């Protein structure tokens, strides 16, 4: 079966392409490389031994979308990763975020409709739950979706809403995966996360500090009402997350549901300081870090109930936090020695 992966050269997309190819799917990637690198596609081939068919193009461009569906007939499902994802940047440039993440999704659905293609997996986020009362943890998919606290978060909320409407009126079959915090890299360290500039996210900041690219990590707050005062998140290995997409494609072909959402996490929450300690233990390095003030907009704690995914998708996270940190570190070391970036 052939699957179109928009944003397939990106962090989560590239790992998903590897799992799809390894699971026997043919993959076509559409990416404009706005936040990724062409070399990623060569490295995927090194891992899987299979060429990745790709179109360099933009989901907002009708001609690019038509090219994909004409050049590669037989696509049966789409996994839609292509989007901007920086929360802070979205506050500065909301229109760019609404254009890429919302308009891009609308154009993709229109092109799919024209190609008589109805199955789509959407990249959503646990950000749709907002600040969660501790009594609701681990959070289930039945928890209310709340007003977003950034334009980026709002694009995920609106994205789910527009897909729900499209499933009702246009016959689309939709699986929306609400990712918790993806980290780590492929075991080979040939693909991983490629943050542009100073990383916003915890784990790339940790690995860049350990390798000497950053002077020190600032832990954003140690006065939260948690076991050690730092925030709690559900850190999921990107290869586990990738596999959830393969399961979601299988589900789209067997289920009678038109619209389903699933939490994709490990079910376990870790504090920022626990992640730092785990990184030090796994890598045998001492991380230079300090405690700083809270970061505006951070939720105190969130972690997933993954029972629905386990029961209905037949998916469950298998890897540990330690394994994720080990692979993230291997990837950072690979980046330091290879001319990966053009
Ligand atoms: P990423 O930036 O690494 O990957 C996105 C890819 O899409 C990149 O290769 C980029 O070049 C491409 N792209 C962006 N706009 C495009 C467009 N208009 N046309 C074609 N290609 C385009 O991001 P990621 O971390 O892999 O995230 C993938 C998806 O998962 C995004 O939708 C993101 O919002 C969502 N998500 C990510 C996280 C996370 O922490 N990484 C958490 C929740 C949800
Ligand atoms: N953190 C630090 N120092 C840093 C970076 C992060 O202490 O330098 C802390 C944050 O305060 C937070 C935790 O590490 O407590 C995780 O932060 P990330 O930025 O890695 O992840 P977030 O949970 O804030 O954000 C992620 C995605 C967003 C998504 C959000 C949904 O990056 O795209 O989850 O909750 F919207």
Q: What is the radius of gyration?
A: 19 Å
Overall 3D shape: globular
Instruction: Work out the helix count.
Output: 11
Low-confidence segments, given as residue ranges, are: none
Please indicate the percent range of residues in DSSP E strands (runs of 2 or more): 15-25%
Reported for the largest beta sheet, the result is: 7 strands, parallel
Strand order of the largest sheet: 3-2-1-4-5-6-11
CATH architecture of the domain at 2-186 and 236-265: 3-Layer(aba) Sandwich
Q: Could you tell me the mean pLDDT?
A: 97
Helix content: 40-55%
Structural class: alpha/beta
Total DSSP E strands: 13
Q: Output the CATH topology of the domain at 2-186 and 236-265.
A: Rossmann fold
Bound molecules: nicotinamide-adenine-dinucleotide, uridine-5'-diphosphate-4-deoxy-4-fluoro-alpha-D-galactose
Order of helices and strands: EHEHEHEHHEHEEHEEEHEEHEHH
CATH superfamily of the domain at 2-186 and 236-265: NAD(P)-binding Rossmann-like Domain
Task: State the separation between the terminal residues, measured CA to CA.
Answer: 33 Å
CATH class of the domain at 2-186 and 236-265 equals: Alpha Beta
Which features does this protein show?
single chain, 342 residues, alpha/beta, Rossmann fold, seven-stranded parallel β-sheet, 11 helices, globular, binds nicotinamide-adenine-dinucleotide, binds uridine-5'-diphosphate-4-deoxy-4-fluoro-alpha-D-galactose
